Amino acid sequence: MKKISIKEIVETMHLEVLAGHEGLSRDVIHDDIHRPGIEFTGFLEHFPMERIQILGRQEITYLHSLSHVERDSRIGAVVAKHPPCFIITRGQEDLTYFEKHCTKEQVPLLRTPEKTTKFLSKLNNFLEKALAKEIGIHGVCLNVFGVGILLRGESGIGKSEAALALVERGHRLVSDDLVILKQIDPVTLLGTHNQSNRDFLSLRGIGLVDIPRLYGSGSFQQETQVNLDILLSPWKEKHHYDALGVEQNVVTYLDVTIRHIEIPVRPGRDIAGLIEVAAKNWRLQQQGYNALKAFEDRLRIAKE
After folding, report:
1. Residue (of 58, 262, 247) closest to 152 by Cα position
2. Which residue out of 2, 3, 64, 138 is catalytically annotated?
3. FRET pair for 202, CA 20 to 30 Å: which of 73, 89, 235, 246?
4. DSSP letter, residue 219
5. pLDDT (tens digit, 9 = 90+) per residue, 251-274?
6. Which of 194, 151, 157 is nearest to 172 (CA)?
7. What Cα–Cα distance (Å) separates residue 170 from each residue in 108, 220, 290?
8. What is the reported pLDDT for 107?
9. 223, 126, 227: which is closest to 175 by C-alpha?
């Protein structure tokens, strides 16, 4: 099970620590976020104590409206459940009553100047990616015409050379050699690098090249949703290759199924150009167009 510490969240989201410094080493294992409301009325049954708790202007205004005794009792009861942390949005102040209980229970009390809705969205996106199930795949990941491509094949088949040709045509490299795949939700697969191989492309005979330095910042992107799995394979004589698109193959990574095609490689074939066509064709198919069906309809009309 993946996890991330409160300290990492503080550093990434640029949060201010108001209290509970001792609890910054605690781990978060759920990407769900909770805004406590009814809990401050005293009803704590089903309280999701494993989630990060976010308090916006509505929650803090309500707490300010309580008497000192009520406020102290209700906040104390919620903090005593030891959720990972509390985050106050909009830079709200006058929180000494909250700081007291968080200090006592060693639960981090954090603050951000951002608006609640905007911060919730940013935090949720960050947690989804940080805690997503992931695997490493040997290959190259690129974004071609807005389509995420996972390019695979045996060592020496020409994956990196094809990636270089695509970058020279204006497309973007995401990762070379090792691609990290993350399952964001049941139908979304994200491809990214592992930080160490960020920006670099390995070319036999030349070595490592820094893609953004050679081709500009637009030649690289941090991540992409992976839509198409392409396998480069050695050309085999007398082997049947589907030239009409009858076969609709798929492959599954982390329970997410994506389209799969195989491109045979031999001297003279423009692999980068074929990958561009594959990306464009995938986009057309998503819009409901099927070239094979259009071809069959044309043949049928011609016979009538």
Report:
1. 262
2. 138
3. 235
4. G
5. 999 999 999 999 999 988 999 999
6. 151
7. 46, 10, 27
8. 97
9. 223
Catalytic residue among 101, 171, 176, 177, which? Answer: 177
CA pair distance 85, 26, nearest whole angstrom: 9
Q: Known catalytic residue: 297? A: no
DSSP string, 131-190: SSEEEEEEEEEEEETTEEEEEEESTTSSHHHHHHHHHHTT-EEEEEEEEEEEEEETTEEE
Pairing mode, strands 207-210 and 200-203: antiparallel
Residue of 101, 159, 171, 193 marked catalytic? 159
26, 6 in Cβ contact below 8 A?
yes
Q: How many CA atoms lie within 13 A of 154 on its CB side?
A: 5
pTM of the model: 0.82
Domains of the chain by start residue, with CATH: 4-130 (3.40.1390.20), 133-295 (3.40.50.300)
Whether residue 138 lies in the annotated active site = yes
pLDDT at 240 over 80: no
21 is annotated as an active-site residue:
no
Instruction: Answer positive or negative: Cα dihedral of 196, 253, 165, 147.
Output: negative
Residue of 33 and 243 predicted with greater confidence: 33
The answer to whether 3 and 87 have CB atoms below 8 angstroms apart is: no
SS3 at position 273: helix
Say if residue 4 is exposed, middle or buried (CB neighbours under 10 Å; 0-12, 13-18, 19+). Answer: middle
Report how far residue 15's alpha carbon sits from residue 98's, in angstroms, rounded to the nearest whole number. 17
Please give the backbone phi and psi of residue 90, each rounded to the nearest 5 degrees, phi first. 60, 15
Handedness of CA 121, 126, 131, 136 (dihedral sign): positive
Instruction: Report the Cα 4 to chain-centroid distance in Å.
Output: 15
Q: What is the identity of the amino acid at 248?
A: Q
CA separation, residue 121 to residues 29, 76, 115, 128, 210 (Å): 18, 28, 10, 11, 33
